[in-house]
Specification:
Elements lengths: L2 E5 L6 H10 L4 E4 L14 H13 L8 E3 L12 H20 L4 E4 L9 H17 L5 E5 L12 H9 L7 E6 H7 L6 H11 L5 E6 L1 E2 L10 E2 L8 H8 L9 E3 L18 H10 L6 H9 L2
Parallel strand pairs: 1-2, 1-10, 2-3, 3-4, 4-5, 5-6, 6-7, 7-10
Antiparallel strand pairs: 8-9
The structure holds fe (iii) ion (FE) (2 copies) and zinc ion.
């Protein structure tokens, strides 16, 4: 099982991410190369990066399974503001360069939001932008994330994901990241996961799946909300998620948790404690822990 969570990329860059992942008992991780909401980026510190590679080796974390996530503000779907559109293209190209420097193979991307233009035009904008970015000589694969369909998000149906892949020139540099919360919210029933995979295989091909975001959902099927819940504490439930994680067809695919931090009490708005160590433990044990919230508070509370 290759499992980890989203981790931060702090002062120490990749080294900080690796240390955080190890503290959760993870054997992979996903990071942003800076704050996900902005595009302020520092140059990569190679000394820290080399230390990170060594620490990964010592802890059986394979760099080939590590995932980067592009910032949310990159929007390749809308080109009404040409300056913004070009900025998104250039920024993603730069992020890919940074991934290459760190020997990271995959970058997950939200395809974008159409905001005010027709969806089919938005899809063509995304495909055009991706082809521009992939023209440059590089080895990093862009993984299109399946979206919940909140607002005007593109990529919330398999048809749209297929359309994008069909229009990419360098198919070897494109892949898909499934997100279980987003799929549920988009209307794909995760209780019938075999059927979903069959459909995915027929339409797109299972070989395109390179990452799975493992999240429970706060909302019912097809609500287009995109609010993640802790594993076993949402509408999907522990068994459905465990079945996806252990699915033989997704065996060697990295599974990444992006579940919410928890507060000191159930209605505490200040979400301060990471749940990942405990969720990973629960998943490895194959046994739901109904006391997880309290275990987390006890562990981290000073
Ligand atoms: Fe995402
Ligand atoms: Fe996700
Ligand atoms: Zn989400």
């Amino acid at each position: 099982m290759i499992i980890g969570s989203h981790v931060s990329f702090g002062k120490e860059g990749l080294l900080g991410s690796v240390k955080e992942a190890i503290s959760y008992g993870a054997n992979t991780f996903m990071f942003y190369t800076g704050a996900p909401q902005n595009t302020l980026r520092k140059p990569i510190d190679m000394k820290n990066t080399e230390e990170a590679w060594n620490l990964m080796k010592e802890n059986n974390i394979d760099i080939n399974t590590v995932i980067c996530h592009a910032p949310y503000i990159v929007n390749l779907a809308n080109n009404l503001d040409e300056r913004k559109y070009n900025f998104s293209i250039n920024f993603l190209a730069q992020e890919i360069k940074r991934c290459e420097e760190m020997k990271v193979k995959y970058i997950v991307l939200h395809p974008g939001s159409s905001v005010g233009i027709e969806r089919n035009i938005a899809l063509d904008n995304i495909a055009f932008a991706l082809n521009e970015i992939l023209k440059k000589d590089n080895s990093v694969q862009i993984l299109l994330e399946t979206m919940a369909g909140k607002g005007t998000e593109i990529g919330c149906t398999l048809e749209e994901i297929k359309y994008l892949i069909d229009h990419i020139d360098k198919k070897e540099l494109i892949g898909v990241c499934l997100d279980t919360c987003h799929l549920n919210d988009a209307g794909y029933n995760m209780t019938e996961f075999d059927e979903f995979l069959k459909k995915f295989d027929e339409q797109i091909g299972l070989n395109y799946i390179k990452c799975v975001h493992v999240n429970d959902s706060k909302n019912e099927l097809g609500t287009h909300k995109d609010r993640h819940a802790n594993i076993g504490y949402g509408t999907l439930g522990f068994d459905i998620i465990l079945n996806i994680i252990n699915h033989p067809k997704l065996m060697n695919i990295p599974k990444i948790l992006e579940t919410p931090y928890i507060g000191e009490t159930d209605d505490d708005k200040a979400r301060i404690y990471p749940p990942y160590k405990f969720e990973i433990e629960m998943i490895r044990n194959g046994q739901f822990n109904s006391n997880m919230m309290n275990d987390i508070r006890e562990f981290y509370h000073k």
